[in-house]
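Hey,
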Amino acid sequence: MDKRHLSKVLRQTRRHSRSAVIADIKMHSPRDGKLLEPEHIQAYLLQLLTGGVDALSIVTASRRFGGSLDVTRLVSGATHLPLMRKDYFQSVEQIDESLELGFTAVHLTLQTIGDLHLVASLKDRAEQLGLEVVVGIHTFEELNQALALQATMIGINNRSIKDLETDAGTVSLTEKLAPLVPRGVLLISESSLMSPGEVARAWIAGADAVLVGTAFAKSLDLQSTLRAFLNAHLAPAIHEHI
């Protein structure tokens, strides 16, 4: 099954004047607890695909996030959508493994890797293998580091992964940092996006995509939630007072 490039999908949705919606498949959240049960993944995935998500992301870290390679293989074998891996990357072997598992992109989070030389090595290896790279940031300093690494896709994590995303971060961080991202660099707003209004805010700020996990996993009517998030650009954003 030929899989599509994440960057191509993001550019395509921008041409249609909306942000791409990336569904983040995460079994457990340190902030919100159990999100998905393994036996429900197949039905959940089917709803995501029929609901029209543009791409998928999987958190494969087992500790604290409940990631599973069995779930990864199930998802990878069932879709042609871009598939991004999120994990605590520390070795090029994990990059090689990502390709073998069917991922088309990897998410290299600066806060968790720490060593910029290692980030560069991981990024180089991924690109050699034909994997796309999203460099994950949370601060202005990390944004500059990502740009120095010549990142072509940047993910702004609205919450801090150092705090296991249990902090009170909001889309306001995307609104703060997005204007500083050079034209031509694709931008994803990640975490804390719980409503269409927040998706609209990210889009207005300049995000080419939003990464949404908990809002979908906890939805009582996933199809309606997906429609609302996919059409968020059609409604005015509700801005917070910061």
